[in-house]
Design a protein that fits this description.
heterodimer; A: about 800 residues; alpha+beta; seven-stranded mixed β-sheet; five-stranded antiparallel β-sheet; 20 helices; elongated; B: alpha+beta; two-stranded antiparallel ribbon
Chain lengths: ~800, ~350
């Protein structure tokens, strides 16, 4: 919403400065977005008269002017404008002046050997318009020597406010003035309602015809003014319309636009000569269309409210008038429409047809119903004043609805909700000055909202009005009472897990990324997603169409993006939500990471202490176990299974399980087919930890860590090497060895894997180091041998292998 | 006696000339060993007269001592020299650069760090962290929050919708974290103090808008909390978060469907230097919206707005991160450019706390 300062002062008697007005607008919720003060920039430029214009001696297209700046001391100025001539009154820029349109500060110059002491400006050079066919050509009576900006009315600052949708009353300069007056900036000049007596009955009838469907028009007022003389509107009106970005058309049209902004009352004018028969307000019909005043054609249907005559659809009711019945300078008889439209209908039609007009803006927010007829009278008077003619009486269809709303209002609500201590008198004054009616006395009164405030529903709205006008700075900053004394734990187990996983993974050199929750359909499909229920109906692009079933597609693509930028060795991770379905429980938290190229735990790339090789499955496994340990998973009890998802390399991947059914994590090198599918170059290794799959920890009854069991007796180490089939897993062998004597064996580590000479084909040698920890007495050789035999027997039984000879 | 002098001179000369411990040992054996030159001389003492013995005995003992000492002294020199030589040979170029440690090279994303900072501040004021799903119902995202039918935010231009499911329901991606307010109020007895950080989505894409972004929302519901408390919380939060001693704030009336009265909050800043400095200067910067929870919203959660009251506020996590840490472009938050993460990210062990400072 834009308006000028002088326009505001039409309605507001005030001595307040522009800065004060701007501050107060902000403080009452009418946020000032911009103040444009063109006068400041145009201050140097004055009106001057060209006294003589002679041909330049050295250039055909240039003239040498003698210009009177107002004091009679003629200046010599070289000028190339085709309209430069003796007697022209224009706008002068002197040496030293900054000319905005050419971004230049003038100096005395020589043009083709003739000195020039300034320039005569075009509108474009002053950034008033794009006009540049010649220099500014003012009327003969423009006062030479005076400020051009002042004379042209350009010294009127333009204020733009960003209106919140609840304030249709402030789509009018008058409404803004009322708010400012209530807030103590000056006095509102009450608008005068005077009825224009109808000299004759309105010959055009109007009816609302919605049959048994919902009416899209509440009321419709119409009157004819005949014998008008239409032409350009007065300079003051044009200046104001131009200042707020509108284009003056002709007086009748300009009056409707002026009423829209001045009073928040959009109107429409039909050229009565072009209207055939009576007007009907009804729903559109399939096949009908209208050529709008904006030059575009719109097809209508039965969701759209139109005004039609006997001939065709002539207007999109409350949004846009039609070209055919529009008023031109030839118009002599004009029908003026002032109507009340259904807000939702206006909004729906505007959206459907993609039309934004000043009328739509107001009607969809809600215009003052009680001003429908006074607005029509006011517009009629303006037409009579500016265009002459005589007015008919008003015909009306429908009824203006009763908007009165009575609210029981306890003044204590202001203290309860806002914490402000305010006297009843000032609260009452604030409401009354905004146009509210108050009846009753005592702690609770009855308050009626004015017809222009459809946003007022209940007590809380009245509190807002009072607080807004008294000022939010009256609200005392009040400490929130503490609950208890020492802050206790506030995070849920899930939140704690995510934080720990995040910090643990970052401490392993992985970099945290945040990637989009939605990914491309084919990527979602490939990673087990892509269900219809997780596809967006209106994605912003095809790259962001489906909710991600896994964090990996986003991370893999991000790793490749880094490679494409020249950083092939990256380690990325993300902790975030994935979607298995559209129910709240289907959204789970995972931590996932990728390492690309040589980005291993120890560092990437070549190094004097040893180059890092390509990343592999064990880099991912290490990340996985570190992440799981950080979130409290029993990593030494997990089983390593081989059934990782299909997007992993089947022979270089695994799943970590708690029991046969609960998969806590998967890891591995990415399947070459997946890499090709995502257009990614390997090597890439990845992991996913399903944070929500880990059972909730049991509540602890004690924080003690249990007694340390450290024997004073020396432990004993023994090595064993077994030859086993290639398909035997290290995990199986280690489990068998550990289980051979649980009391004595405290640790088993695998220290060698060998294939080759001396070992049968399809077999391998696995060597383990067994740590025996006696608890009560030192072991004898016999006891050690006995344990050794148990270990060999257990391993041979479990793996089918044998002790290496 | 002169032969002893000659022997002494020869031996001392040989000791001085020994350049390895082995050579020195050979000399020791040749002089002091069983058949060594001095030992052989000792053996002659028995055949001497008492007078001869009186003279030769001390002389031989003195010679033995001299040679023993000389060998020991020479040995010490050789050991020292050998150590020197070893140390020299073992020397390396200690300026050789090392690989950075993983804990130094990994980074935490600024969004996570800022959420941890928010958590530290609000936990101290007694707030818990509430969460909810990204995929929401129209009821929770709009209707329960008092958005009228036909509100522009409900439009396909602004909100991501899913296709209608079998129940004829059209789910959506939440446009704000406010549905979690409803979820919280419907499941938890007041008093309620929560902050709600999370991902939110709107159909929007330019330098300052991305289709996915992060919001944090606060909610207080009890029998007495009013706008003055909200003002205090936001003042305390801004000081703590931006780590400044004092900050001027400006509250402006505004409008949101789910609060009444509603306010927008500007904080004092200085834009003169090309970058925004919070807590100084004469400019204003809008950072959040807030208000008293609308009576209709309280009612929609099954509570009586005449008994329960409270307030809510919401702001962009990405936006306050940009303001505090100076990232110029929101889109880069979600691009995973390793250079950006390394530059704007945080070290994994820099956990924000109130006692140790939010940022280092």
């Amino acid at each position: 919403m834009k308006f000028t300062l002088s326009w505001l002062k039409d309605h507001l008697e005030t001595d307040a400065s522009l800065d004060d007005i701007v501050d107060r607008l902000n403080m009452i919720g009418l946020e000032v977005e911009e103040v444009t003060d063109r006068a400041a920039r145009l201050a140097p430029f004055r009106i001057a008269r060209v006294v003589a214009a002679d041909q330049h001696p050295n250039a055909d297209r240039l003239k040498v002017l003698k210009v009177d700046p107002g004091n009679g001391e003629l200046l010599q100025i070289v000028c190339g404008a085709p309209n430069a001539r003796a007697g022209l009154v224009g706008v002068l820029a002197n040496p030293g002046d900054y000319v905005p349109g050419i971004d230049t500060t003038l100096s005395v110059g020589k043009i083709r050997d003739v000195e020039s002491f300034g320039m005569m400006c075009s509108e474009r050079e002053l950034e008033i318009s794009d006009e540049h066919t010649g220099i500014i050509d003012l009327p003969d009576d423009a006062p030479v020597g005076e400020s051009y900006a002042t004379w042209a009315g350009l010294d009127d600052p333009v204020i733009e406010i960003g209106l919140t949708p609840n304030r249709p009353d402030c789509t009018a300069v008058y409404g803004i003035a009322r708010d400012l007056a209530a807030a103590g900036i000056g006095t509102l000049k009450e608008r005068t309602h005077h009825q224009v007596a109808g000299r004759f009955p309105c010959p055009t009838k109007v009816s609302l015809d919605f049959g048994d469907t919902k009416s899209l028009c509440k009321a419709f007022g119409l009157r004819l003014v005949r014998g008008v003389k239409n032409g350009p509107s007065p300079k003051w009106m044009q200046e104001r319309l131009i200042a707020i970005g509108l284009r003056p058309i002709n007086t009748l049209v300009d009056i409707t636009n002026y009423m829209t902004f001045d009073q928040g009352r959009p109107l429409h004018v039909f050229d009565a000569a072009k209207v055939t028969g009576d007007l009907v307000v009804r729903r559109g019909r399939a096949g009908e269309s209208i050529d709008g005043l904006n030059g575009k054609t719109y097809d209508v249907d039965d969701s759209i409210c139109v005004i039609a005559d006997d001939h065709a659809v002539e207007s999109l009711g409350g949004i846009l008038g039609g070209e055919i019945t529009g008023c031109t300078e030839a118009t002599t008889d004009v029908l003026i429409e002032s109507a009340l439209w259904d807000e939702d209908g206006i909004a729906a039609t505007g959206r459907k047809l993609g039309v934004n007009t000043d009328a739509r803006y107001r009607f969809e927010r809600g215009v003052d119903p009680d001003f429908m007829l006074p607005g029509l009278e006011m517009a009629t008077q303006m037409v009579l004043d500016l265009c002459g003619g005589e007015a008919s009486s008003i015909v009306q269809a429908g009824e203006v609805p009763d908007s009165a709303k009575i609210i029981d209002f306890p003044y204590a609500e202001v203290r309860r909700l806002a914490g402000i201590e305010a006297a009843v008198a000032e609260m009452t004054l604030a409401l009354k000055s905004l146009g509210f009616w108050i009846s009753g006395t005592g702690d609770t009164v009855k308050v009626a909202a004015p017809s222009w405030r459809p946003d007022i529903e209940g007590k809380a709205d009245l509190v807002e009005e009072i607080v807004r006008i008294l000022g939010l700075d009256r609200v005392p900053s009040t400490p929130l009472p503490r609950i208890g004394s020492v802050t206790s734990k506030v995070l849920t187990p899930g939140q704690i897990r995510r934080n720990r996983a995040r910090r643990a993974l970052a401490a392993r050199g992985l970099n945290e990324a945040v990637t989009w929750s939605f990914i491309r359909k084919d990527q979602a499909d490939h990673f087990g997603g892509g269900q219809p229920g997780l596809s967006l109906a209106n994605p912003i692009s095809t790259d962001m169409s489906d909710m991600r079933p896994s964090l990996l597609p986003g991370l893999l693509v991000a790793a490749q993006r880094n490679a494409d930028r020249g950083f092939p060795d990256v380690a990325l991770f993300e902790v975030g939500q994935v979607f298995a379905g559209d129910a709240p429980d289907d959204q789970t938290m995972t931590a996932a990471g990728v390492r690309r190229g040589t980005a291993a735990f120890d560092g990437a790339g070549r190094h004097w202490a040893g180059a890092s090789g390509n990343v592999g499955v064990f880099d991912a496994k290490a990340d996985t176990l570190a992440g799981l340990a950080a979130v409290g998973a029993p990593v030494d009890k997990l089983q390593v299974a081989k059934d990782a998802p299909a997007y992993f390399h089947p022979g270089r991947s695994g799943a970590l399980k708690l029991g046969p059914k609960t998969t806590l994590a998967v890891f591995g090198e990415i399947h070459p087919r997946t890499l090709a599918e995502l257009d990614i170059e390997g090597p890439v290794t990845a992991f996913e930890i399903y944070l929500d799959a880990l059972p909730q920890p049991k509540a602890k009854t004690s924080r003690t860590k249990g007694k340390l069991q450290a024997s004073d007796l020396m432990p004993v180490r023994r090595d064993f090497a077994f030859v086993v089939g290639d398909d035997v897993t290290a995990d199986a062998l280690l489990r068998a060895a550990r289980g051979a004597d649980k009391a004595l064996i405290s640790d088993v580590t695998l220290f060698d894997v060998y294939k080759g000479k001396g070992i049968a084909e399809d077999h391998k040698s696995l060597a383990i180091d067994v740590l025996l920890q006696p608890a009560k007495k030192t072991l004898t050789d016999e006891e050690i041998d006995a344990v050794g035999k148990k270990i060999v027997a257990a391993v041979e039984k479990a793996t089918g292998g044998h002790l290496r000879g | 006696m002169s032969h002893l002098n000659t022997l002494e001179t020869d031996l001392l000369s040989a000791i001085a000339g020994a350049d390895t411990e082995a050579a020195l040992e050979d000399i020791r054996v040749s002089a002091l060993g069983k058949k060594g030159s001095i030992s052989e001389q000792m053996k002659t003492l028995g055949k001497m007269t008492p007078d001869e013995r009186k003279a030769m005995g001390p002389a031989l003992n003195a010679l033995k001592t001299t040679i023993t000492d000389a060998i020991a002294a020479r040995k010490a020199v050789l050991v020292e020299a050998a150590l020197e030589a070893r140390l020299h040979s073992e020397s390396v170029d200690v300026t050789l650069p090392l690989r950075p440690s993983p804990a130094e090279s990994g980074r935490i994303h600024p969004i996570s760090q800022v959420i941890d900072e928010l958590t530290a501040i609000f936990a101290d004021m007694g707030f818990a962290i509430a969460e909810g799903p990204d995929i929401e119902t129209d009821e929770l995202n709009f209707t329960a929050l008092n958005f009228p039918e036909g509100h522009p935010a409900r439009d396909m231009h602004d909100t991501f919708f899913f296709n209608e499911n079998e129940e004829g329901e059209r789910l959506l991606l939440r446009t704000h974290t406010s549905p979690v307010q409803i979820r919280t109020m419907r499941t938890q007895e007041p008093p309620i103090r929560v902050i709600i950080p999370g991902r939110t989505y709107r159909c929007d894409s330019d330098q300052t808008h991305t289709p996915m972004f992060h919001q944090v929302e606060g909610l207080v519901i009890d029998n007495s909390s009013h706008f003055g408390h909200l003002k205090w919380i936001l003042e305390e939060f801004c000081k703590a978060f931006f780590e400044v001693d004092d900050i001027k704030m400006r509250f402006r009336p505004s409008y949101f469907p789910f609060t009444e009265p509603s306010m927008e909050v500007d904080i004092q800043c200085d834009r003169s230097g090309g970058e925004v400095r919070i807590g100084q200067g004469e400019d204003w910067l809008e950072i959040l919206g807030c208000g008293m929870v609308h009576p209709n919203v309280i009612r929609n959660c099954g509570l009586d707005p005449d008994e329960y009251q409270g307030f809510a506020w919401g702001m962009g996590i990405d936006r306050i991160a940009m303001l505090k840490y100076g990232m110029p472009d929101l889109r880069a938050f979600f691009d995973a450019d390793i250079r950006w993460i390394q530059h704007y990210g945080f070290r994994p062990l820099d956990l924000p706390t109130l006692f140790g400072g939010l940022s280092s």
